[in-house]
Amino acid sequence: MAAKSRSNRWIRRYPKKTAEFHGHLSLLLVIDVRTGFIGLRELELKKSTEKLHVTASLKYSVPVSCVLDEIQVTTGYTFGNKKLTSKNASGIAAEFRLPDRKRVTSAVNQTFFNRLKKKLLSEKVSNHEMQDLARLVASMPEEDSFVIEREQRFS
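The structure corresponding to this sequence follows.
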């Protein structure tokens, strides 16, 4: 019950906040917000830790490049404060790196993403259906929708 309650608070707060920054609400936005939260949670951090750096790996074209907006809102890391960079890649992933300590990469599971994309492109999805789908994606177990790689380093 606690996990469902936490998920409901999350789906109400961050997608709305991110949609205001980004300009619209989308299903991809929900996935991308989770990407940011996974990285922070895995490193046991809150927003704006000075030494953390995030590198987003993605195809730099809409709608995939929208990941950058969602990461900025959920983490507080931006291009302006030089805590966020991006590089061209075929999937969607974000690497969260603390110097001499830990690194975690949160990548969207490509099979999951392809199934989702196929559903969205194969039929006309109403706004209500999109919101229901967004809630479903927000509450899915991470192992079904993300691949998380952890690396611990010590100096």
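The domain at 2-152 is CATH 3.30.1330.130 (60s Ribosomal Protein L30; Chain: A;).
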